[in-house]
Write a structure and sequence with these properties.
The chain has helices at about 10-25, 70-80, 125-135, 145-150, and strands spanning about 55-60, 65-70, 90-95, 100, 105-110, 120-125, 140. The chain is of the alpha+beta class and about 160 residues long. Strands 2-1-3-4 form a 4-stranded antiparallel sheet. The protein has a 3-stranded antiparallel sheet with strand order 6-5-7. The radius of gyration is 20 Å and the shape is globular.
Length: about 160
Amino acid sequence: MRTPEGGKLGVLVPVCLAVFLLGCGGGEADSPPAVALGKASCAVCGMKISDPLFVAVSRTSEGETLTFDDPGCLIRHLRERRDWVGDRIWMAAYDDEGMLVPQGGVTLVGAEFPSPMGSGFAAFLDPATAGEEARIRGGVAGPLEDFVSGALQRPRGAP
């Protein structure tokens, strides 16, 4: 079947769809940067990043990418930065072998996890698992923002 205007609609629709999809993809800014374990250093403490279960990455609104070896270092950085609302943050999911996940997709648990700098924080994909880990370890679970603001604090000396 032939379309009006000599078949141009058949070409126009796929082109418009491709432009729409490319425009909405977000591209590289939405993807977590690769972290070279054993080579990259923490932006706060300077320690080499070696444990994939505790990695965090921040891409500032200015485009600077920072890596952290421990969620506690990320929290410290964000407290000092203060205006981090436009930053993109990824955290390693403790319950998914360290897969980097956008900050809104994880629940942070403050308890006695063996994090590199001893902050005791770990991020979880599954909120129910995070809550159970917090209960078992005598900690507390919640969003990153609550730990940065001080609304939630990791209990010291949690079992």
